[in-house]
Amino acid sequence: MRLLKKACLLLAGAVTAAGVTVLGAGAPASAADCSHVYFLADGHLNGTTGATWDVNHTVAPPGAHLEKFLYDDGIIPVVEPHDLDTTQKYAGPALEKKVTDFHQSCPGTPITLVGYSFGALISGNVVASLASKNAVPHNLLNAVLIADPRHAVHTSGVEGPAGGIMSVAPDGPGMHTTGPRNFGDIKVANICRHDDIICNAVNPVSNAQGFIGEMQRFNTAHTAYGDPDPNRSPWHNPAAFENSGDLMLAPSAPITWGGPAFPAPMPRDVLNSNPVYQGVIDGLSKSGDTLDWANVLNSFGLPGDQVIHEMIAALEAAGKYW
Prior knowledge:
The chain is of the alpha/beta class. Helix content is 34%, strand content 14%. It has ten helices and nine strands.
């Protein structure tokens, strides 16, 4: 259980390389600019200020344009203004509206969703939602997901079955691990570093050695998607990876996996279907909701989200927030 606890804690803190009540940032596309659009879901606490993970200055190819979708990524209940569940609840629909609004203004224009880590979580959720409806023709949509926390479980090496941390770890308070998605007939490139626990977490039950090794190198592996040649970096040039499908990149450094000792279901599959465990998690999640910063302020008749955004923006500007 200690390993499972660590997995939940990692889910809480680690997915955040890339926050919550969405500000749907970025100017809406004008009808005059109907070139192929790349929507970059970019967060990491800074949906208020615009300082984001995109330090590599992601670019769109010639003849296309890039639009950033900024959101506030909260993950850990109480510690941050909102929790992971709330972030997804607001960010996904806001990005989906941005996509459908663009399509209505520019019918027939290709749309590519791009995201890294938390941004890949949000972008992938939107693709899966649009795959189940006809709001945008599926042949006009595609996505480039880098280090997707909901990467489907697969077997890619001696480490045995592995997948995104939200497909492997069980639910945590305010952090329901919703598992892999169905993208239907929409083309999705899923790019993952082999030793990145966010998108390729091994089973902590059957391969504890590999899971611990991935946790120890999280900060290195999860940020190893650059390249000396920016045109070969999915961060900088996602368009070059649109046709890569499910692409597993080499480990950031040699790693001793420790092969799976025995076949075992993923912790998520065991605990998320356990009514006792779910009852505990749901109770803790509801308790966390009562301590949600915005909800507390709202209960006093104050504009909770606005106050929090202004506070975080001031702290970020002063270099005092994370």
